[in-house]
Design a protein that fits this description.
single chain; CM_II_prokaryot; mainly alpha; signal; Chorismate Mutase Domain, subunit A
Amino acid sequence: MWKSFAPMTWLAPLVACLFFTLISSGWAEEKAASPLVMLVVERLSWMDEVAEVKRAKAAPVVDPVREEALLQAMEKQGKEAGLPPERVRQFFAGQILAAKAFQEDWLSRPKPAAWQGRPLPDLTTEVRPRLDDIGRRMISALTQGRQSGDAEVIVRQARETLQKQGYAEAVINPAIKGLKAGLGRRP
């Protein structure tokens, strides 16, 4: 029995050596997506709920008063966290544009079967508090992202993650533009 396994004993150290060589040379997969990237995706994942409430209420996708209030609140939180308010505004303006693009696309289609008969969430008590929480976490993650010096990696991860999630370029492009601006890169 020993003889049948003996030829394979040299394989484990070789595989381990190859694995560590790939990691050290950068050929292995990059580290997990940045928290900021995951928050951009998480925020967008709520937009079907927002869109369905707007569909049910025949409300427009664009809500300039709500959008401006959000931008001002985020600027204030960003300033308290030591971020330049204009960068925070640009970041969240990009996320708002991405959200609106998603909602417009969603509403251009018939109501999905998964939403037939499903109770609508309450924007005031359910959805907006979650979005506000995501916004607060985005400020923290934006601060970390700006300090890390990994802006290019974060932007690349965001584009790749949004593409893998199946978002359209009309959604991805403003999200990325806002992300670049927030991280201090040219949009």
